[in-house]
Amino acid sequence: MSPEGTQLLLKAGRELGLDLGPHIPRFVRLYQMLVEANRRMNLTAIRDERGIVLKHFVDSLTCLLYPGFADGAEVVDVGTGAGFPGLPLAIVRPGLRLCLLEATQKKARFVASAIEGLGLDNAEALWGRAEELARGVKRETYHAAVVRAVASLPVVAELALPLVRVGGFVLLQKGPEVEGELGRSKGALEKLGGALEGVLPLSLPVGGEARRLVVLRKRRPTPEEYPRKAGVPAKNPLS
Ligand SMILES: C[S@@+](CC[C@H](N)C(=O)[O-])C[C@H]1O[C@@H](n2cnc3c(N)ncnc32)[C@H](O)[C@@H]1O
């Protein structure tokens, strides 16, 4: 990463109230690993330095504007792709324990190698589908889930809420279009044992793009029939 990229990251971090100074070596290393991996495979669509800094690193860190992440919490990142938002969260918050879940094997392999390369002992990569994990060993295991750019709200709710313990939360990183999805998701949330806790509007540092953090609270155990089999939530969203 160039000196300009580093300065941009520091400035954006300050706008979020974060001192990223101590974490710069890891972000530089992650940047290098992403650029190198993108030469070999189609890992991420955003490939320019400014885009990686603002749209991947900083956008991921906006999750921390929600004050609910307590040290010691186990957090699952559902559909982490190349590691977002999970890797930046693991870097900046060593007290959290991140599980980065991804259905595509080559992406999960990249995330595992990034965790090793960055020396993160508070993160693990998991290759699998959320539906299968939530119907098995990881059901109602996590204190929280984070989800960015995976699917519409009812679909993501069915993937993430069953993985979270009663009392925990799901944080969805969304754009302003989520306002339209909210009205159509009440039935799905009710079926899954969840409820909308709130929507936090924010602007991405530096560029000012509009974002929304949507918080779902897990109120009751999710009925056994959810999530439905792998692929069904996306094909036939709950209503
Ligand atoms: C558009 S990418 C976004 C990746 C990352 N969250 C980000 O914002 O950069 C969506 C990812 O979710 C993964 N995914 C979709 N459905 C999934 C499921 N049911 N279980 C696990 N991963 C899933 C896909 O393989 C894909 O890598």
TrEMBL record:
Alphabetized SUPFAM superfamilies for the sequence: S-adenosyl-L-methionine-dependent methyltransferases (SSF53335)
Signal peptide, first to last residue: none
Gene3D superfamilies per record: Vaccinia Virus protein VP39
EC main group: transferase
EC number: 2.1.1.-
Transmembrane segments: none
Subcellular location: Cytoplasm
Main location: cytoplasm
Record keywords, A-Z: Cytoplasm, Methyltransferase, rRNA processing, S-adenosyl-L-methionine, Transferase
GO molecular function terms attached to this record: rRNA (guanine-N7-)-methyltransferase activity
GO cellular component terms attached to this protein's record: cytosol
Residues binding S-adenosyl-L-methionine: 79, 84, 102-104, 130-131, 148
Family the entry assigns: Belongs to the methyltransferase superfamily. RNA methyltransferase RsmG family.
Function: Specifically methylates the N7 position of a guanine in 16S rRNA.
Protein's name in the database: Ribosomal RNA small subunit methyltransferase G
Organism, as annotated: Meiothermus luteus
Organism placement in taxonomy: Bacteria, Thermotogati, Deinococcota, Deinococci, Thermales
Gene that produces this protein: rsmG
